[in-house]
Amino acid sequence: MDGETPIASQTLTPTARWLGYAGLLPQIICVALAASGHELGYTAIAGGFAYAAAIFSFLGGVWWGQALANGKAGAGAYVLAVIPSLLAVALFLPWTFGWDWPGSALLYLGALILLSPLVDRALGFAAPDFFRLRVQLSAGLGVLTIALGLLAGSLV
Q: How far apart, in whole angstroms, are the C-alpha atoms of residue 45 and residue 152?
């Protein structure tokens, strides 16, 4: 099979895989709008932050669910699972106070998403094909979010 995972050990359907990749489309659209100088550029940046923050929070939910399903997870797994939501809110706070936002918040959020598969690896709950998809999607969303953060400087 040329290094592919045998069918019996795959946990993801092709539909699940394609829908995962489709999840990159909102951020691609946000980056395209911001880069084009479109009048919705700032809205695209704010929307891109909201989308990345929601996905980052969702990853915490995935870790929580995996810890529950494992049945042997310690408290540390649950602590790790709530951190993404708390960080996403913390990165949003500068906007609510009228401080410098969203450029640096997008850069931090993109980096956190990019590095998030390290948590999956540390927890050890993810099936191999799911972990590979996680790495790919986190790389994609992380890089797109960082690109949006870099574009934010020219629009804000």
A: 7
The answer to whether 69 and 126 are in contact (CB under 8 A) is no
Predicted model pTM: 0.90
Closest by CA position to 48, among listed 139, 114, 145, 155: 145
Q: How far is Cα 130 from Cα 101, in angstroms, rounded to an integer?
A: 33
Spatial separation of the C-alpha atoms in residues 59 and 21, rounded to whole Å? 15
Torsion over CA of 84, 101, 103 and 38, rounded to 10 degrees? 120
User: Buried (b) or exposed (e) across 47-68, using 16+ Cβ within 10 A?
Assistant: bbbebbbebbbebbebbbebbe
Q: How far is CA 143 from CA 1, 100, 104, 109, in A?
A: 31, 21, 14, 10
Predicted local confidence at residue 102, as pLDDT:
84
Nearest to 105 by CA among 85, 89, 122: 89
